[in-house]
Design brief:
Helices cover about 40% and strands about 15% of the residues. The protein is of the alpha/beta class. The protein folds into two domains: about 15-240, Alpha-Beta Barrel (TIM Barrel); about 245-270.
Length: about 270
């Protein structure tokens, strides 16, 4: 499906647009700290998302809602210091942009100034259009996010697939078109039917990146800790595990404990 891959020294918003035009799929992963971001970036990833999923992965919260703007800036700053190639997109956290476009702009400015991030991501469609317009008017790039929007989990009441019914699918299509018209440079579609996601991607000129949205979109995103098998209790259908780090790390820790207890570590070569 994909055309030959162009080598980008630095991935930009323009790069993503070119990738879509050339039929090259976009690869996106999350990172929340310097060490992981360094590894992910050096692998050749196109986009790094500093997601509010840090609330679950790094802080152990049940939802993404508790994460604060200051915490997002901390995580994004750590990631930015590690990155040489990837485009870094930072989630605007819950409560920083819903209902107040002035607060939304202030939050986006803080992220850009204090973390050095390259763009922000926002969940929602027509209900947040004023906030999107205001942020874009300041020259800050915005990535949209539709479908399952985790910041609205208490509204939905479940993490089940979204937009299966005709009315919700129609609204999603309308919102996707609106986000493109407002000036969003890309769109994430989460946990929606593959057929619907493919239709949206075909209808838009901006890149559409899916998570649990099938293969008919322009790229894919996963949470790095999930695809590495560190979050072993999380098993949605869309997740492909590329490693089983939970088992490998547990084995390593057990071996270390045994070596310390037995006096095998450190040996003579590991001393000064």
């Amino acid at each position: 499906m994909s055309a030959s891959t162009k080598e980008y020294k630095r991935v930009t918003i323009k790069s993503l647009s070119e990738m879509k035009a050339n039929g090259e799929r976009i690869a996106m992963l999350t990172a929340y700290d310097y060490t992981m971001a360094k590894i992910v970036d050096s692998s050749g990833i196109d986009v790094i998302l500093v997601g509010d999923s840090a609330s679950n992965v790094m802080a152990g919260h049940e939802t993404t809602l508790p994460l604060t703007l200051d915490q997002m800036i901390y995580h994004a700053s750590s990631v930015i210091r590690a990155v040489d190639r990837a485009l870094v997109v930072v989630d605007l956290p819950f409560g920083s942009y819903q209902g107040n476009s002035k607060s939304a702009l202030n939050a986006a400015i803080r992220i850009m100034k204090e973390s050095g991030g390259h763009a922000v991501k926002m969940e929602g469609g027509s209900e947040i259009k004023d906030s999107i317009k205001r942020i874009l008017s300041a020259g800050i790039p915005v990535m949209g996010h539709l479908g399952l929007t985790p910041q609205s989990i208490y509204k939905f009441g479940t993490y089940t697939v979204r937009a299966k019914e005709e009315e919700e699918a129609k609204k999603l299509k309308e919102d996707a078109k609106l986000l493109e018209e407002l000036g969003c440079f890309a769109l994430v579609l989460e946990k929606i039917p593959a057929k619907l996601a493919a239709e949206v991607a075909a209808d838009l000129s901006i890149p559409v990146i899916g998570i649990g949205a099938g293969g008919g979109v322009d790229g894919q995103v996963l949470v790095t800790h999930d695809m590495l098998g560190m979050t072993y209790e999380f098993n949605p259908r869309f997740l492909r595990r590329y490693l089983d780090l939970y088992t490998e790390m547990t084995n390593a820790f057990n071996q270390y404990i045994d070596d310390v207890k037995s006096g095998d570590f450190p040996n003579k070569k590991e001393q000064y």
